[in-house]
């Protein structure tokens, strides 16, 4: 997929073309209103200079046919921030229905794999027999990420911020890469932003820079992830009624850090 730059909100030329391949994670960062969702919208609609940004999207170097544009639902999967189910089905029935719609001949194995993967991604385990409408936000998102990665043939996945609570974001992105998806993630979260193979920085509706994380950033990311893991573990302990205990070495480190 190639994204050919258009114009920003002031009408200035966006001097970038971005070529993406299977397994790429492209993170979109920038202040609120800077144009991240517009970019996701342009990709979703396979824009041809006909959106406010004037961007154009090429597939395998070519302008997509009008039939590909109208059936873009098959090429592009989108995980939006809001996840509300309106069907009265259990988790297993829902995945089975999706597998049936994809004409998968013997779906039991894939259903089990999606259930297992979704439970690995989710902070809180859930049973295949629970109703979709009873899933928490994090569980719903974990289910949809596993379903998108393992059952959707769409090679491109658009994610509008994976919420911190309830989803292992690192594993989620690794799963999408392993399944060969091109993943675009719009985010305000530094941990997610640093996980990309490229980071597009947005300003005033246009791409203002492209950053490829170097060794220094990779090191910073590993450190931030450690802090994030510690934070998650404390959060889980506290919400399960636990009490935080620090051994002497930790007390010394924290005393030094807060000075
Ligand atoms: N290149 C552009 N040309 C014209 N309008 C644009 C352009 N980019 C974005 N816009 C418009 O600016 C508004 C804000 O953009 P957008 O919603 O994409 O921001 P965002 O970065 O996703 O914000 P947030 O982080 O709050 O979700 C939208 O109405 C969008 O259509």
Can you tell me about this structure?
The longest helix is centred in the C-terminal third of the chain and has 25 residues, at 215-239. β6 (156-160), α7 and β7 form a beta-alpha-beta unit. It is built from 10 helices and 9 strands. With 259 residues, it is α/β, with parallel strands linked by helices. The relative contact order is 0.17. The termini are far apart. It has a 6-stranded mixed sheet with strand order 5-6-7-3-8-9, with helices on both faces. The protein folds into 2 domains: 2-213, P-loop containing nucleotide triphosphate hydrolases (Rossmann fold, 3-Layer(aba) Sandwich), CATH 3.40.50.300; 214-259, no CATH class. Bound molecules: adenosine-5'-triphosphate. Adenosine-5'-triphosphate (ATP) binds at residues 7-9, 30, 32-38, 52-53, 202, 205-206. Belongs to the ABC transporter superfamily. InterPro entries: AAA+_ATPase, ABC_transporter-like_ATP-bd, ABC_transporter-like_CS, P-loop_NTPase. This is ABC transporter. It holds the Pfam family ABC_tran.
Keywords:
259 residues; alpha/beta; Rossmann fold; 2 domains; 3-stranded antiparallel sheet; 15% strand; ABC transporter; nucleotide-binding
Distance between the termini: 49 Å
The strand order across the widest sheet is: 5-6-7-3-8-9
CATH architecture of the largest domain: 3-Layer(aba) Sandwich
Order of helices and strands: EEEHEHHEHHHEHEHEEHH
Helix content: 40-55%
CATH topology type of the largest domain: Rossmann fold
Question: How many E-type strands?
Answer: 9
The CATH homologous superfamily name of the largest domain equals P-loop containing nucleotide triphosphate hydrolases
**Total domain count:** 2
Main β sheet profile: 6 strands, mixed
Strand content: 15-25%
What ligand species are in this complex?
A: adenosine-5'-triphosphate
The average pLDDT value, as a whole number, equals 90
Structural class by sheet pairing and helices = alpha/beta
Q: If you compute it from the alpha carbons, what radius of gyration comes out, rounded to the nearest whole angstrom? A: 20 Å
CATH class of the largest domain: Alpha Beta
Count the DSSP helices: 10
Unreliable residue stretches: none
* Gross geometry: flat
GO molecular function: ATP binding; ATP hydrolysis activity
Keywords: ATP-binding, Nucleotide-binding, Transport
Family: Belongs to the ABC transporter superfamily.
Organism: Methanospirillum lacunae
